[in-house]
């Protein structure tokens, strides 16, 4: 049996045992008929003594709460460990790194993938098309630096984090870089004409 399945079973059993009631209630008054006879008009002249309830201790409840809380934390920790191992298994790693993407419409997107030392711009739709391969060099360094850039000013970082999602930030950055690439590719043509 897998170790994680064993741990899930153990945690389930511990959780069920911790939820068992702490005490059992007993009927001290007897049957309904005895209570009716006791409350009959013939017995009204007697003074009724109200029994004092037993003083309940808070300690067992506190221990139960703390134990359950720690058990839940342990269960979450085990689940997160399991999920992190699974994502590492599927991440692939190696020479392939997905740097991001930009949605272009229904089931269409532009993806930036680094394979080895080469950066690829891929159009993804019903099929995958290579738009451009960017070999190692100055242009690739600028693209990678722009992807890795973060705002230095903490106020700017907090403000931009509150206003925009990470997808919106990535979209702006990608559009800016694409415009820069277009303007750079147009400049040598104009100079040669």
Query: Helicity range of the residues?
Result: 40-55%
Note the main sheet. 4 strands, antiparallel
Structural class: alpha+beta
**Biggest sheet: strands side by side, in what order?**
1-2-3-4
* N-to-C series of helices and strands: HHHEEEEHHH
Tell me about this structure.
Helices cover 54% and strands 17% of the residues. The protein is of the alpha+beta class and 193 residues long. The longest helix has 33 residues. The chain is elongated.
Keyphrases for this structure?
193 residues, alpha+beta, 4-stranded antiparallel β-sheet, 6 helices
Quick take:
It is built from six helices and four strands.
Topology:
Elements lengths: L2 H16 L13 H7 L20 H33 L4 E10 L2 E8 L2 E7 L3 E7 L3 H11 L5 H10 L2 H27 L1
Antiparallel strand pairs: 1-2, 2-3, 3-4
Helix pairs in contact: 1-3
